[in-house]
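> call design_seq(struct)
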């Protein structure tokens, strides 16, 4: 079982979700996540051009489940930190995300869970998960890198017309026993990271 945000988001069957992204203004995007019966599961709000690029994933009632923000203000290679609720305490860190390669045309992200034992050398630590591609063209995939196990993928294309006006949707297929809140957070981070290029 891959439970990062919580076991309640790990279904014993394949989960398909529809993600709708819309631009609310030049500074704000919003993601709404629905099940296939069109029931709202999550919303993700936050600024695209604020200094720390803070995003908050909320459940259908509006309660914050996790917050995502970039580490540092200006960097060449963005690193994201994701915390429980709207916390910024180190004990509430769920995972961190960084770009492994600056010279890639595809968005690739390394995802690391907090270490069990504090270490001073984090440069040699292999990521716990890795993403590749973008959801544009249905190429986004989430893997467990040691066994190269596919955990989730975008399975439905969207229209280029919707992309131009800032509104589009796509489907995400999440394999059994994989935390779908974790997958949605990674999709939002991949979107923000690809928009920075």
């Amino acid at each position: 079982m891959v439970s990062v945000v919580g076991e309640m988001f790990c279904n014993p069957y394949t989960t398909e979700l529809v993600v709708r992204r819309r631009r609310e203004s030049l500074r704000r995007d919003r993601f709404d996540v629905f099940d296939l019966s069109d029931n709202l599961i999550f919303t993700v709000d936050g600024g695209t051009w604020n200094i720390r690029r803070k995003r908050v994933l909320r459940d259908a009632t509006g309660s914050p489940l996790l917050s995502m923000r970039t580490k540092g203000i200006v960097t060449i290679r963005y690193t994201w930190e994701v915390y429980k609720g709207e916390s910024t305490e180190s004990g509430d860190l769920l995972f961190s995300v960084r770009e492994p390669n600056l010279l890639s045309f595809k968005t690739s992200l390394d995802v690391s869970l907090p270490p069990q034992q504090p270490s001073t050398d984090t440069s040699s630590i292999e990521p716990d998960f890795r993403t590749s591609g973008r959801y544009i063209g249905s190429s986004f995939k989430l893997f467990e890198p040691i066994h190269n196990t596919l955990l989730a993928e975008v399975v439905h294309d969207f229209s280029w017309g919707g992309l131009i006006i800032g509104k589009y949707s796509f489907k995400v297929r999440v394999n059994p026993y994989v935390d779908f809140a974790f997958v949605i957070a990674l999709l939002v981070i991949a979107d923000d990271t690809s928009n920075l290029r």
